[in-house]
Amino acid sequence: MKFLDKAKIRVISGHGGNGMVAWRREKYVDKGGPAGGDGGRGGDIYFVADENMSTLLDFKIKSVFKAQSGENGGIKGMHGACAKDLYIRVPLGTVVRDVKSGKLIADLTENEQQVLIAKGGRGGRGNARFATAQKRAPQFCEPGEPGIERVLELELKLIADVGLLGMPNAGKSTFISAVSSARPKIADYPFTTLVPHLGVVKKDDGGSYVIADIPGLIEGASEGVGLGHEFLRHVERCRFLIHVVDLTTENPVENYKIINNELRKHSEGLANLYQVLVLNKIDAILEENLNKFKEEFKQFSSDIFPISAVTKQGVDELLHFVSQKVDEIPKPEFDIDIEEDLDAYDNDDSAFEVTKLDKETYLISGGKLSRLAKVTDARNTEQVVRLQNIMKGMGVFDELHKYGLKNGDTVILGHLELAYYDDEVWGG
Fold first, then answer.
1. Which pTM value belongs to this model?
2. What is the CA 181 to chain-centroid distance, rounded?
3. Mean pLDDT lowest for which of 46-50, 91-95, 185-189, 299-303?
4. Pairing of strands 361-365, 353-358
5. What are the two backbone dihedrals, phi and then psi, of residue 241, each rounded to the nearest 5 degrees?
6. Residue 271 buriedness (CB in 10 A; 0-12 / 13-18 / 19+)
Protein backbone atom coordinates (compact mmCIF):
# COMPACT_ATOMS: atom_id res chain seq x y z
CA MET A 1 0.00 0.00 0.00
CA LYS A 2 1.32 3.45 -0.87
CA PHE A 3 2.27 5.60 2.11
CA LEU A 4 1.00 9.17 2.17
CA ASP A 5 1.78 11.41 5.14
CA LYS A 6 0.55 14.77 3.82
CA ALA A 7 -2.78 15.74 2.28
CA LYS A 8 -4.89 18.82 1.63
CA ILE A 9 -8.68 18.61 1.89
CA ARG A 10 -11.73 20.88 1.91
CA VAL A 11 -14.49 20.54 4.49
CA ILE A 12 -17.90 22.25 4.42
CA SER A 13 -20.22 22.00 7.39
CA GLY A 14 -23.98 21.83 6.89
CA HIS A 15 -26.18 24.82 6.03
CA GLY A 16 -28.80 25.66 8.61
CA GLY A 17 -32.42 25.17 7.55
CA ASN A 18 -34.55 28.23 6.76
CA GLY A 19 -37.19 29.50 9.12
CA MET A 20 -40.82 29.54 8.00
CA VAL A 21 -43.43 32.29 7.63
CA ALA A 22 -46.77 30.69 8.46
CA TRP A 23 -50.05 31.47 10.22
CA ARG A 24 -52.48 29.58 12.37
CA ARG A 25 -55.62 28.70 10.40
CA GLU A 26 -57.76 26.84 12.95
CA LYS A 27 -61.44 27.56 12.60
CA TYR A 28 -62.04 28.51 16.21
CA VAL A 29 -58.81 30.42 16.85
CA ASP A 30 -59.47 34.13 16.48
CA LYS A 31 -56.71 36.06 14.68
CA GLY A 32 -54.53 32.95 14.52
CA GLY A 33 -51.14 34.63 14.71
CA PRO A 34 -47.70 33.57 13.47
CA ALA A 35 -46.89 29.84 13.45
CA GLY A 36 -43.70 29.48 11.40
CA GLY A 37 -41.21 26.94 12.76
CA ASP A 38 -37.43 27.20 13.03
CA GLY A 39 -34.98 25.56 10.63
CA GLY A 40 -32.75 22.74 11.82
CA ARG A 41 -29.06 23.04 12.57
CA GLY A 42 -26.59 22.05 9.87
CA GLY A 43 -24.27 19.12 10.48
CA ASP A 44 -20.96 19.62 12.30
CA ILE A 45 -17.75 18.02 11.01
CA TYR A 46 -15.47 16.09 13.36
CA PHE A 47 -12.14 14.33 12.93
CA VAL A 48 -11.80 10.99 14.73
CA ALA A 49 -8.44 9.33 15.37
CA ASP A 50 -8.34 5.71 14.20
CA GLU A 51 -5.47 3.42 15.23
CA ASN A 52 -6.36 1.04 12.38
CA MET A 53 -5.38 3.63 9.75
CA SER A 54 -1.71 4.09 8.88
CA THR A 55 -1.72 6.52 5.93
CA LEU A 56 -3.54 9.54 4.52
CA LEU A 57 -4.01 7.80 1.19
CA ASP A 58 -7.83 7.88 1.52
CA PHE A 59 -7.69 11.68 1.26
CA LYS A 60 -5.90 11.43 -2.06
CA ILE A 61 -8.96 9.63 -3.41
CA LYS A 62 -11.53 11.92 -1.76
CA SER A 63 -10.57 15.46 -0.77
CA VAL A 64 -13.93 17.26 -0.35
CA PHE A 65 -16.20 16.50 2.61
CA LYS A 66 -19.59 18.14 3.05
CA ALA A 67 -22.01 17.68 5.93
CA GLN A 68 -25.78 17.56 5.47
CA SER A 69 -27.93 20.69 5.75
CA GLY A 70 -30.68 21.15 8.32
CA GLU A 71 -34.33 20.89 7.25
CA ASN A 72 -36.46 24.00 6.80
CA GLY A 73 -39.02 24.97 9.40
CA GLY A 74 -42.65 24.05 8.81
CA ILE A 75 -46.18 25.26 9.46
CA LYS A 76 -47.93 25.00 12.83
CA GLY A 77 -44.68 25.79 14.65
CA MET A 78 -42.97 22.62 13.46
CA HIS A 79 -39.18 22.83 13.57
CA GLY A 80 -36.98 21.35 10.85
CA ALA A 81 -34.82 18.37 11.78
CA CYS A 82 -31.17 18.95 12.61
CA ALA A 83 -28.71 17.32 10.22
CA LYS A 84 -26.48 14.41 11.18
CA ASP A 85 -22.90 15.28 12.04
CA LEU A 86 -20.11 14.07 9.74
CA TYR A 87 -17.26 12.09 11.28
CA ILE A 88 -14.03 11.79 9.26
CA ARG A 89 -11.60 9.12 10.43
CA VAL A 90 -7.88 9.93 10.28
CA PRO A 91 -4.76 8.02 11.38
CA LEU A 92 -3.42 8.31 14.88
CA GLY A 93 -0.80 11.06 14.94
CA THR A 94 -2.53 13.37 12.45
CA VAL A 95 -1.87 17.09 12.87
CA VAL A 96 -4.44 19.43 11.29
CA ARG A 97 -3.64 22.96 10.14
CA ASP A 98 -5.99 25.60 8.72
CA VAL A 99 -4.42 26.69 5.43
CA LYS A 100 -5.94 30.20 5.43
CA SER A 101 -4.96 31.18 8.97
CA GLY A 102 -1.95 28.92 9.35
CA LYS A 103 -3.19 27.88 12.79
CA LEU A 104 -2.90 24.36 14.17
CA ILE A 105 -6.40 23.27 15.09
CA ALA A 106 -5.97 19.60 16.03
CA ASP A 107 -3.39 17.05 17.10
CA LEU A 108 -4.96 13.61 17.31
CA THR A 109 -2.78 11.37 19.46
CA GLU A 110 -5.29 9.04 21.17
CA ASN A 111 -7.48 6.36 19.59
CA GLU A 112 -11.10 7.52 19.04
CA GLN A 113 -10.19 11.10 20.02
CA GLN A 114 -12.71 13.50 18.45
CA VAL A 115 -12.07 17.10 17.44
CA LEU A 116 -14.65 19.56 16.10
CA ILE A 117 -13.34 20.93 12.81
CA ALA A 118 -16.26 22.94 11.36
CA LYS A 119 -19.47 23.85 13.14
CA GLY A 120 -22.73 23.59 11.22
CA GLY A 121 -24.80 26.69 10.44
CA ARG A 122 -27.55 27.69 12.84
CA GLY A 123 -31.11 27.16 11.76
CA GLY A 124 -33.10 30.28 10.86
CA ARG A 125 -35.95 31.32 13.16
CA GLY A 126 -39.53 31.20 12.01
CA ASN A 127 -41.84 34.22 12.25
CA ALA A 128 -43.40 32.85 15.45
CA ARG A 129 -40.14 33.73 17.22
CA PHE A 130 -40.45 37.43 16.37
CA ALA A 131 -43.97 38.00 17.72
CA THR A 132 -44.19 40.57 20.53
CA ALA A 133 -46.99 42.42 22.25
CA GLN A 134 -46.32 45.39 19.97
CA LYS A 135 -45.69 43.36 16.81
CA ARG A 136 -48.16 40.51 16.71
CA ALA A 137 -47.88 39.61 13.04
CA PRO A 138 -44.23 39.62 11.91
CA GLN A 139 -44.02 39.09 8.16
CA PHE A 140 -40.50 37.75 8.05
CA CYS A 141 -38.32 34.84 9.15
CA GLU A 142 -34.61 34.10 9.07
CA PRO A 143 -32.83 32.03 6.48
CA GLY A 144 -30.45 29.45 7.88
CA GLU A 145 -26.81 30.34 8.34
CA PRO A 146 -24.34 28.89 5.85
CA GLY A 147 -21.89 26.26 6.97
CA ILE A 148 -18.20 26.89 7.54
CA GLU A 149 -15.84 26.06 4.68
CA ARG A 150 -12.24 25.27 5.44
CA VAL A 151 -9.20 24.14 3.49
CA LEU A 152 -7.10 21.95 5.78
CA GLU A 153 -3.62 20.53 5.58
CA LEU A 154 -3.21 17.13 7.21
CA GLU A 155 0.21 15.93 8.29
CA LEU A 156 0.81 12.47 9.72
CA LYS A 157 3.39 11.94 12.45
CA LEU A 158 3.57 8.25 13.28
CA ILE A 159 2.87 7.26 16.86
CA ALA A 160 5.63 4.81 17.82
CA ASP A 161 7.53 4.10 21.03
CA VAL A 162 10.87 3.46 19.37
CA GLY A 163 12.32 4.77 16.10
CA LEU A 164 14.86 2.85 14.02
CA LEU A 165 17.52 5.05 12.42
CA GLY A 166 20.48 4.31 10.24
CA MET A 167 22.02 4.65 6.82
CA PRO A 168 20.37 2.91 3.85
CA ASN A 169 21.09 -0.83 3.87
CA ALA A 170 22.09 -0.76 7.55
CA GLY A 171 19.72 -3.66 8.21
CA LYS A 172 16.78 -1.88 9.83
CA SER A 173 14.16 -3.62 7.69
CA THR A 174 15.70 -7.02 8.43
CA PHE A 175 15.73 -6.19 12.14
CA ILE A 176 12.10 -5.10 12.32
CA SER A 177 10.98 -8.18 10.38
CA ALA A 178 12.95 -10.37 12.80
CA VAL A 179 11.39 -8.92 15.97
CA SER A 180 7.81 -8.23 14.82
CA SER A 181 5.18 -9.23 12.28
CA ALA A 182 6.05 -6.30 10.00
CA ARG A 183 7.22 -7.46 6.58
CA PRO A 184 9.04 -4.67 4.71
CA LYS A 185 10.69 -5.47 1.40
CA ILE A 186 14.27 -6.55 2.00
CA ALA A 187 17.07 -6.82 -0.55
CA ASP A 188 20.82 -6.29 -0.79
CA TYR A 189 20.94 -2.91 -2.44
CA PRO A 190 22.28 0.49 -1.33
CA PHE A 191 18.89 2.19 -1.49
CA THR A 192 16.54 3.24 1.26
CA THR A 193 13.12 1.92 2.26
CA LEU A 194 10.53 4.11 0.53
CA VAL A 195 7.94 4.07 3.32
CA PRO A 196 8.01 3.83 7.13
CA HIS A 197 6.99 0.49 8.61
CA LEU A 198 5.47 -0.09 12.03
CA GLY A 199 6.11 -3.31 13.94
CA VAL A 200 4.56 -4.45 17.22
CA VAL A 201 7.05 -6.18 19.53
CA LYS A 202 5.85 -8.43 22.35
CA LYS A 203 7.35 -7.86 25.79
CA ASP A 204 8.27 -10.54 28.33
CA ASP A 205 5.47 -9.41 30.67
CA GLY A 206 2.82 -9.82 27.96
CA GLY A 207 2.65 -6.17 26.94
CA SER A 208 3.89 -4.68 23.69
CA TYR A 209 5.45 -1.62 22.12
CA VAL A 210 5.67 -0.19 18.60
CA ILE A 211 8.86 0.21 16.58
CA ALA A 212 8.92 2.46 13.51
CA ASP A 213 11.36 1.69 10.71
CA ILE A 214 12.10 5.19 9.43
CA PRO A 215 13.48 5.36 5.85
CA GLY A 216 17.26 5.65 5.76
CA LEU A 217 18.86 9.04 6.05
CA ILE A 218 21.77 10.28 3.99
CA GLU A 219 24.01 13.31 4.33
CA GLY A 220 22.03 16.47 3.55
CA ALA A 221 18.66 14.91 4.43
CA SER A 222 17.67 17.83 6.67
CA GLU A 223 18.12 20.16 3.66
CA GLY A 224 16.01 17.95 1.40
CA VAL A 225 18.55 15.53 -0.06
CA GLY A 226 17.14 12.04 -0.59
CA LEU A 227 13.98 10.77 1.10
CA GLY A 228 14.91 10.81 4.77
CA HIS A 229 13.99 14.46 5.38
CA GLU A 230 10.37 13.65 4.49
CA PHE A 231 10.18 11.27 7.45
CA LEU A 232 12.15 13.01 10.17
CA ARG A 233 8.85 14.30 11.57
CA HIS A 234 7.91 10.70 12.40
CA VAL A 235 10.84 10.34 14.77
CA GLU A 236 9.78 13.29 16.94
CA ARG A 237 7.05 11.38 18.77
CA CYS A 238 9.24 8.39 19.76
CA ARG A 239 10.35 7.78 23.34
CA PHE A 240 13.87 7.01 22.14
CA LEU A 241 15.83 5.75 19.12
CA ILE A 242 17.65 2.62 18.08
CA HIS A 243 20.55 3.66 15.88
CA VAL A 244 21.56 0.79 13.60
CA VAL A 245 25.12 0.90 12.24
CA ASP A 246 26.35 -1.39 9.46
CA LEU A 247 29.79 -2.67 10.48
CA THR A 248 30.58 -3.93 6.96
CA THR A 249 30.76 -0.43 5.45
CA GLU A 250 34.01 1.41 4.85
CA ASN A 251 33.63 3.84 7.78
CA PRO A 252 30.84 2.92 10.27
CA VAL A 253 31.83 5.62 12.76
CA GLU A 254 31.59 8.36 10.16
CA ASN A 255 28.15 7.08 9.07
CA TYR A 256 27.01 7.24 12.69
CA LYS A 257 28.16 10.87 12.94
CA ILE A 258 26.43 11.82 9.67
CA ILE A 259 23.03 10.56 10.87
CA ASN A 260 23.29 12.38 14.20
CA ASN A 261 24.34 15.55 12.44
CA GLU A 262 21.18 15.40 10.30
CA LEU A 263 19.06 14.94 13.42
CA ARG A 264 20.65 18.00 15.00
CA LYS A 265 20.04 20.10 11.88
CA HIS A 266 16.39 19.09 11.89
CA SER A 267 15.80 19.93 15.57
CA GLU A 268 17.56 19.92 18.92
CA GLY A 269 14.73 17.79 20.27
CA LEU A 270 15.64 14.97 17.91
CA ALA A 271 19.33 15.33 18.61
CA ASN A 272 18.73 15.03 22.37
CA LEU A 273 16.61 11.84 22.20
CA TYR A 274 18.20 8.90 23.96
CA GLN A 275 19.77 6.36 21.57
CA VAL A 276 20.52 2.67 21.85
CA LEU A 277 23.50 1.93 19.60
CA VAL A 278 23.17 -1.31 17.62
CA LEU A 279 26.20 -2.65 15.73
CA ASN A 280 24.68 -4.84 13.02
CA LYS A 281 26.05 -7.59 10.73
CA ILE A 282 28.54 -9.02 13.20
CA ASP A 283 28.17 -12.34 11.37
CA ALA A 284 30.02 -10.79 8.40
CA ILE A 285 33.11 -9.44 10.19
CA LEU A 286 35.98 -10.90 12.19
CA GLU A 287 35.72 -10.93 16.00
CA GLU A 288 38.89 -8.85 16.35
CA ASN A 289 37.34 -6.15 14.14
CA LEU A 290 34.16 -6.25 16.25
CA ASN A 291 36.16 -5.59 19.43
CA LYS A 292 37.88 -2.67 17.68
CA PHE A 293 34.53 -1.14 16.67
CA LYS A 294 33.13 -1.58 20.18
CA GLU A 295 36.03 0.40 21.57
CA GLU A 296 35.57 3.16 18.97
CA PHE A 297 31.85 3.52 19.66
CA LYS A 298 32.20 3.65 23.45
CA GLN A 299 32.89 7.38 23.13
CA PHE A 300 29.31 7.87 21.89
CA SER A 301 27.27 5.51 24.06
CA SER A 302 27.52 3.07 26.95
CA ASP A 303 24.53 1.09 25.68
CA ILE A 304 26.01 -0.81 22.74
CA PHE A 305 24.59 -4.06 21.40
CA PRO A 306 26.39 -6.06 18.68
CA ILE A 307 23.83 -8.14 16.75
CA SER A 308 23.14 -9.94 13.52
CA ALA A 309 19.61 -9.21 12.33
CA VAL A 310 19.92 -12.08 9.85
CA THR A 311 21.00 -14.83 12.28
CA LYS A 312 19.29 -13.12 15.27
CA GLN A 313 22.50 -13.31 17.28
CA GLY A 314 22.29 -10.85 20.20
CA VAL A 315 18.70 -9.82 19.30
CA ASP A 316 17.02 -11.28 22.41
CA GLU A 317 19.39 -9.43 24.74
CA LEU A 318 18.74 -6.19 22.85
CA LEU A 319 14.94 -6.62 22.97
CA HIS A 320 15.02 -7.27 26.72
CA PHE A 321 16.94 -4.03 27.23
CA VAL A 322 14.66 -2.05 24.89
CA SER A 323 11.56 -3.32 26.74
CA GLN A 324 12.97 -1.97 30.00
CA LYS A 325 13.71 1.39 28.41
CA VAL A 326 10.16 1.63 27.00
CA ASP A 327 8.86 1.35 30.58
CA GLU A 328 11.41 3.84 31.93
CA ILE A 329 11.30 6.62 29.34
CA PRO A 330 7.98 8.52 29.04
CA LYS A 331 6.56 9.71 25.77
CA PRO A 332 7.80 13.20 24.88
CA GLU A 333 5.42 16.08 25.51
CA PHE A 334 4.83 18.74 22.88
CA ASP A 335 3.88 22.35 23.47
CA ILE A 336 1.71 22.85 20.38
CA ASP A 337 -0.27 26.07 20.07
CA ILE A 338 -3.68 24.71 19.06
CA GLU A 339 -6.68 26.92 18.35
CA GLU A 340 -9.15 25.25 20.73
CA ASP A 341 -12.25 27.44 20.49
CA LEU A 342 -13.24 26.90 16.86
CA ASP A 343 -16.65 28.47 17.39
CA ALA A 344 -15.00 31.67 18.56
CA TYR A 345 -12.44 31.42 15.79
CA ASP A 346 -15.14 31.45 13.11
CA ASN A 347 -17.97 33.20 14.95
CA ASP A 348 -16.54 35.71 17.41
CA ASP A 349 -19.73 37.38 18.59
CA SER A 350 -18.08 40.42 20.17
CA ALA A 351 -15.42 41.36 17.64
CA PHE A 352 -15.84 43.52 14.56
CA GLU A 353 -13.53 45.54 12.37
CA VAL A 354 -14.10 48.84 10.56
CA THR A 355 -12.24 49.66 7.35
CA LYS A 356 -12.59 53.04 5.64
CA LEU A 357 -12.55 52.36 1.90
CA ASP A 358 -12.87 55.99 0.80
CA LYS A 359 -14.30 59.29 2.11
CA GLU A 360 -17.89 58.05 2.02
CA THR A 361 -17.65 54.24 2.23
CA TYR A 362 -17.01 52.01 5.25
CA LEU A 363 -16.60 48.24 5.41
CA ILE A 364 -17.61 46.31 8.55
CA SER A 365 -16.57 42.72 9.18
CA GLY A 366 -16.83 40.42 12.17
CA GLY A 367 -18.14 37.04 13.28
CA LYS A 368 -21.60 37.91 14.57
CA LEU A 369 -22.19 40.84 12.21
CA SER A 370 -21.15 38.80 9.18
CA ARG A 371 -23.57 36.06 10.18
CA LEU A 372 -26.39 38.55 10.74
CA ALA A 373 -25.77 40.12 7.34
CA LYS A 374 -26.12 36.73 5.67
CA VAL A 375 -29.61 36.27 7.14
CA THR A 376 -30.83 39.84 6.59
CA ASP A 377 -32.97 40.71 3.56
CA ALA A 378 -32.29 44.35 2.59
CA ARG A 379 -35.81 44.53 1.09
CA ASN A 380 -37.44 43.69 4.42
CA THR A 381 -37.67 46.80 6.61
CA GLU A 382 -38.28 44.86 9.81
CA GLN A 383 -35.12 42.81 9.34
CA VAL A 384 -33.01 45.88 8.56
CA VAL A 385 -34.30 47.68 11.68
CA ARG A 386 -33.43 44.62 13.77
CA LEU A 387 -29.88 44.58 12.35
CA GLN A 388 -29.53 48.30 12.99
CA ASN A 389 -30.55 47.92 16.65
CA ILE A 390 -28.07 45.10 17.18
CA MET A 391 -25.29 47.20 15.69
CA LYS A 392 -26.16 50.08 17.98
CA GLY A 393 -25.99 47.79 21.00
CA MET A 394 -22.56 46.50 19.92
CA GLY A 395 -21.18 50.03 19.58
CA VAL A 396 -20.62 49.76 15.85
CA PHE A 397 -21.97 53.23 15.09
CA ASP A 398 -19.87 54.78 17.84
CA GLU A 399 -16.80 53.24 16.22
CA LEU A 400 -17.91 54.38 12.74
CA HIS A 401 -18.26 57.97 13.96
CA LYS A 402 -14.64 57.86 15.13
CA TYR A 403 -13.72 57.17 11.50
CA GLY A 404 -15.81 60.17 10.34
CA LEU A 405 -19.18 58.59 9.44
CA LYS A 406 -21.80 61.13 8.40
CA ASN A 407 -25.31 61.12 6.95
CA GLY A 408 -25.48 59.76 3.43
CA ASP A 409 -22.33 57.64 3.72
CA THR A 410 -22.41 54.00 2.63
CA VAL A 411 -21.87 51.16 5.08
CA ILE A 412 -21.01 47.76 3.60
CA LEU A 413 -21.68 44.67 5.67
CA GLY A 414 -21.45 41.37 3.86
CA HIS A 415 -23.73 41.53 0.83
CA LEU A 416 -25.52 44.60 2.21
CA GLU A 417 -24.75 48.15 1.02
CA LEU A 418 -26.74 50.54 3.17
CA ALA A 419 -26.96 54.34 3.31
CA TYR A 420 -26.58 55.70 6.84
CA TYR A 421 -28.83 58.37 8.35
CA ASP A 422 -29.09 59.29 12.06
CA ASP A 423 -32.07 57.63 13.80
CA GLU A 424 -33.68 56.55 10.55
CA VAL A 425 -34.21 53.21 8.89
CA TRP A 426 -31.44 52.43 6.42
CA GLY A 427 -32.08 52.09 2.77
CA GLY A 428 -30.06 50.79 -0.16
1. 0.68
2. 30
3. 185-189
4. antiparallel
5. -120, 150
6. middle
